[in-house]
Amino acid sequence: MIENFKKDFKRIFLAGVLVILPLVVTVFLLHFFFVKIDQMVNPAVNRLLILTGWPIDPDFRLPGLGLVASIMIVFLTGVFTRNVVGRKMVNYGESVLTKIPIFKNVYVGAKQVIQTFGQSNSKAFSKVVVIEYPRKGIHALAFVTNISSEGEVSRRLARDTVNIFLPTTPNPTSGYYLLVPRNEIIELNMSIEDGIKMIISGGLFIPPDAVAELRDKDAVKDGH
Q1: Secondary structure (H, E, C), the chain
Q2: Phi, psi at residue 167, to the nearest 5°?
Q3: Contact call for residues 200 and 177 (beta carbons, < 8 A)
Q4: What separation, in Å, do the N-terminal and C-terminal C-alpha atoms of the chain show?
Q5: Cα dist from 206 to 7, 57, 148, 200, whole Å
Q6: Cβ neighbours of residue 160 under 8 Å, at least 6 residues apart?
Q7: Burial class (CB in 10 A: 0-12, 13-18, 19+), 43
Q8: Residues 44-89 pLDDT 10s
Q9: Predicted confidence (pLDDT) per residue in 100-136, tens digit
Q10: 64 contact partners, CB below 8 Å, separation of at least 6
């Protein structure tokens, strides 16, 4: 009884963390952009305007200045890192930081996730599917990366295959590239985002079945 309660509590608690954590991060970033940077930038801008002869109150605050400054900082950082000197400095800084044991795991993992899923999901993956892996009777969630293999692979196999990426849990940036016969995959209706959430959470996050919900609504309407 107690063991079952502990397991249920842990599962429900982790599910709650998966919901709350993104909200906390979002609120923190918004607070940082709108409040913290605003508090740092506005006084400096006020002093500059007063020195140039603008008749403004020293306590005047320009709304949204922190957000504009944040966008400019990110943009200028991108411009800087696109040239040779900037890339070398960034690479050197990363090589130093990644030597720190704990920081290395956090930074590298976050960077991999951003690089992998930072692009448009429609470009990275086209479909969420279920395949039998690693053996018959056991199923795994995966993503279609291409409708069918081309070139020598397709010619050698002489069958209709689909390029599949099978990610690992909880780090979906690593996984396996598989060529699976088209008739052995089950296509799902869930979005790419929900598929990624499900994999990262190890199955704690279960997206709703949109098709089933639609059928239930239609059934209710027909009943009336």
Answers
A1: CHHHHHHHHHHHHHHHHHHHHHHHHHHHHHHHHHHHHHHHHHHHHHHHHHHCCCCCCCCCCCCCHHHHHHHHHHHHHHHHHCCHHHHHHHHHHHHHHCCCHHHHHHHHHHHHHHHHHCCCHHHHCCEEEEEECCCCCCEEEEEEEECCCCCHHHHHHCCCEEEEEEECCCCCCCEEEEEEEHHHCEECCCCHHHHHHHHHCCCCCCCCCHHHHHHHHHHHHHHC
A2: -80, 160
A3: no
A4: 44
A5: 17, 54, 29, 11
A6: 148, 181, 182, 183
A7: middle
A8: 777 777 777 777 676 667 777 777 777 887 788 777 777 777 778 7
A9: 766 666 566 566 655 655 554 445 688 999 999 999 9
A10: 34, 38
Joined tokens for residue 50: 């007063």
174-200: string of b/e by CB count within 10 Å (b at 16+)?
A: ebeebebeeeebeebebebebbbbbbb
Angle 84-97/65-81 helices, nearest 10 degrees? 100
Structure tokens, 166: 């099978």
The pTM for the full model equals: 0.49
Residue keyed to tokens 């008749």: 55
DSSP-assigned beta bridge partners for residue 177: 165
Decide: 122 and 144 in contact? Cβ < 8 Å.
no
Enter the tokens of residue 172: 């979906």
